[in-house]
Amino acid sequence: MAAEPAQIEKVITDSLISFGANAEEINRDAELTALDIDSLDLAELSQIIEEQFGVELTSSDVAEINTVGDAIDLVAERA
Amino acid sequence: MADVVVTGIGAVTPLGIGATVLHERWAAGIVGIADGEGRCREFNATEHLSVKEARRADRFTQLALVASDEALADAGWSEELPYDATEIGSIIGTGIGGIGTIEANDALLAANGPKGVSPLAVPLMMGNAAAAAVSMRHGLRGECFGTMSACSSGADAIGTAMRAIRYGSAKAMVTGGAEAALTPLSKAAFGALDALSTSGISRPFDARRDGFVMGEGAGILVLEDGEAARARGARVLAVMRGYGGTADAHHLTAPQPSGEGAATAITRALADAGVSAEDVVYVNAHGTSTQLNDRAETLALKAALGAHAAEIPVSSTKSAIGHLLGAAGAVEAVATILALRARLIPPTLGWEERDPDLDLDYVPERARELALRDGQRAIAISNSFGFGGHNSVLCLEAK
């Protein structure tokens, strides 16, 4: 199931906004901690990503994600 | 043993946002019940909480958070905590917990399987969520847990918090109760028990009472060690005089018909407070509007207070807002404090027809001035009883 990076970026961005992150602060370089995204948000994000793109992220995968760009790239690589 | 004072109160109820609103509207005869339920219609979580805070909290926790903001501001804690954070705890009761979250996730499980269930389901539905969220929001690092004793949960939380301060394990406690169980499963379940009013009218102690009307809301109190509160120049709203608890050990849902267990709880609360029946000037009744409770509670008051029971005004907050289950005891403690302070006893709304067996003064029709004789103190009891046979009574004195 191939997914366009733009589509992945949109899903991730929309998810972060729904979790309460400030839309204006979201960009590829933004650190998740700076966006007040924590482990519970990442658990929700993993669930959304699996549902949307069929990519299963393990907790060790998630532990490697520091920035929004990291998340997009990881999903794009696996999708 | 430390004396314990109340320095802040907050409430979200079907009568609106705020403790003062609760007292003023109830005393004015306004009923917050509509379509047979006491919903907090004026409450919109995101007006008070960030998106993140609101989605990280079941509605019962949201209600507790907003009431806690009011209570801490009322206590003068908005800028900073007055004591070391590890000396301030949070004990908040709920009868049911995050049942709205449970129901929503059960629907997701049915529709999408296990992977459809939210990672937030557990932290939102757990019964201790309100206590935990209040501690996180305000940075309270003392002892923190929920209490669960059905409709006594709020009173038990407050009584337990009072004891923590007396025992010396805390300088202050943020305590109370919260409930948001106006959900399809919960309403159906209480309906199946035949406990809910079919008329949709809450009229405690009236001959025509036909069950309780379910409500939602939260009440939060800030309790402080009296000496510490006075040292910081805090305004004292009331003194927590006593707490008494018993169990009926009789039936899962029905009260002991004679009210014996409830009477013992009242007697214990008075003994704990060091006051006699004659010192009580107001009873904020549990008064659910069910046949069984209102009869047993009347008998309990007469057994515990003797001949004096007939002379004390007895009114039920549930006549104005319905039964807030695990929040009831806390919201009613708030209402009791405000009634005592205003020297104005709000009425048992809807009480019109006397039940020949229920012969106390239920303060019908309109609010009544509380006239104190010289030297008489403004002391009240607030009763809370719960399914499971829980009887919990608080004794409060307002300044």
Spell out the key features of this protein.
heterodimer, A: 79 residues, mainly alpha, Non-ribosomal Peptide Synthetase Peptidyl Carrier Protein, Chain A, 4 helices, 57% helix, 0% strand, globular, B: 399 residues, alpha/beta, Peroxisomal Thiolase, Chain A, domain 1, 2 domains, 11-stranded mixed sheet, two-stranded antiparallel sheet, 34% helix
Q: How does this structure look, described?
A:
The complex is a heterodimer of chains A (about 80) and B (about 400). Chain A has about 80 residues and is mainly alpha-helical. Chain A has a single domain (about 5-80), classed as Non-ribosomal Peptide Synthetase Peptidyl Carrier Protein, Chain A. Chain A has helices spanning about 5-20, 40-55, 60-65, 70-79. Chain B folds into two domains: about 5-240, Thiolase/Chalcone synthase (Peroxisomal Thiolase, Chain A, domain 1, 3-Layer(aba) Sandwich); about 240-399, Peroxisomal Thiolase, Chain A, domain 1 (3-Layer(aba) Sandwich), CATH 3.40.47.10. Chain B has helices at about 20-25, 50-55, 60-75, 100-110, 120-125, 130-140, 155-165, 185-190, 225-230, 260-275, 290-305, 320, 330-340; strands at about 5-15, 15, 90-95, 145, 170-180, 215-225, 240-245, 280-285, 315, 345, 370, 380-385, 390-399. In chain B, the strands form two sheets. In chain B, strands 1, 2, 3, 4, 5, 6, 7, 8, 9, 12 and 13 form an eleven-stranded mixed beta sheet that branches. In chain B, helix 3 (about 60-75) crosses helix 6. At the A-B interface, helix 2 of A face helix 2 of B.
